[in-house]
Design goal:
By secondary structure, this protein is an alpha/beta fold. About 45% of the residues lie in helices and about 15% in strands. It binds 3-hydroxy-3-methylglutaryl-coenzyme A and magnesium ion. Magnesium ion (MG) binds next to loops.
């Protein structure tokens, strides 16, 4: 399978990127970020989570964020909604898409969503049913697809099984999350291929964290088998500054720069994207983690 001619980028910075920030991120900074990302040409911007505010306080203002953003024609603003309560709150905010999330590792599911994988899938059934009745698209996430901080190795067969279950209950797409960024290209490609063989390439998305600096290499390996939906976070947001060695999501700037070089369409304006990354990191009191953003800033200085 040849590389795709265009890639659909799912920008997860406002959600995955900001959910671990230790300090309060002002509502205005979140809203400005989402609007700037839309201005840069991103068509899917994950904008928050309807989860327990005790678990993830940084996402507690998601309803306010959704009320304040300047919704653009043709742009989707999905949010995480792990249970019926989350979906009901999301519906009240007028979302057109939500995402449910589970893991390929039992140990991680217990820590992240406080239940077993099977229980998480059971919990999603009414979420998917209500979403279908309301015409809301649902994306599924599988975490720890290339390793788990608590159980170590994660069998590819388990990733396939969970992905198939999500599609069977109605998810239009499954995003494969290397939550702790331990994957390397050959393993990433084999895992994505195994999933795509079962749920189809068009339903297969990839979500890499850059903890070990492998995210871009992993994306390239998966592009080679035809994967065409890639998650990324502007400025490489997502690292927790207080967790030693933890770094964030694949930076959208790095992804766009590589795809531009490969002649793969994204519809994203790199200069505007980098400006969005500089603005949010300035609001957080730091500079973008993206190498491309750093190089662009150095050149402009
Ligand atoms: P629980 O404690 O098992 O469930 O939480 P519960 O039903 O017993 O509820 C406990 C409390 O949470 C109750 O409040 C509920 O009302 C409230 P209390 O009575 O104690 O005051 N609650 C909610 N509040 C608002 N919105 C809701 C909601 N649901 C319950 N939707 C739950 C289960 C899943 C809710 C909880 O474990 C949770 O919120 N976890 C947060 C998980 C999370 O957001 N993780 C980060 C996102 S996943 C990720 O980052 C990975 C990804 O990027 C891919 C990758 O990299 O791998 C996607
Ligand atoms: Mg993530």
């Amino acid at each position: 399978m040849a590389r795709p001619q265009s890639v659909r980028i799912v920008e997860v910075g406002p959600r995955d990127g900001l959910q671990n920030e230790p300090g309060v991120v002002p509502l205005a900074a979140k809203v400005a970020l989402i609007d700037a990302l839309a201005d840069a040409g991103l068509k899917v911007i994950e904008s928050g989570s309807f989860v327990s505010p005790k678990w993830v306080p940084q996402m507690a203002d998601t309803a306010a964020v959704l009320a304040e953003i300047d919704r653009r024609e043709g742009v989707r603003y999905p949010v995480l909604a792990p249970n019926l309560k989350g979906l009901e709150l999301a519906l009240a905010s007028g979302v057109e898409e939500v995402a449910v999330f589970t893991a390929a590792s039992e140990a991680f599911a217990a820590k992240n969503i406080n239940c077993t994988i099977a229980e998480s899938l059971e919990r999603f059934t009414p979420v998917l049913d209500l979403a279908r009745a309301r015409g809301i698209a649902v994306r599924g996430y599988v975490s720890c697809v290339l390793g788990c901080p608590y159980q170590g190795e994660v069998p590819v067969a388990k990733v396939v099984e969970v992905s198939e279950a999500l599609v069977a209950m109605g998810c239009y797409e499954v995003s494969l999350g290397d939550t702790i960024g331990v994957g390397t290209p050959a393993k990433a490609r084999a895992m994505a291929q195994a999933v795509a063989d079962h749920i189809g390439l068009a339903r297969t998305a990839i979500h890499f964290h850059d903890t070990y600096g492998q995210a871009l290499a992993n994306v390239l390996a998966c592009l080679d088998i035809g994967v065409a939906t890639v998650d990324a976070a502007v400025a490489g947001l997502g690292g927790c500054p207080y967790a030693k060695g933890a770094s964030g999501n694949l930076a959208t700037e790095d992804l766009v720069y590589m795809l531009n070089g490969l002649g793969i369409e994204t519809g994203v304006d790199l200069d505007r994207l980098a400006a969005a990354g500089r603005a949010i990191t300035a609001a957080l009191g730091r500079t973008p983690a993206s190498k491309v953003a750093q190089a662009m800033a150095a050149k402009a200085a």
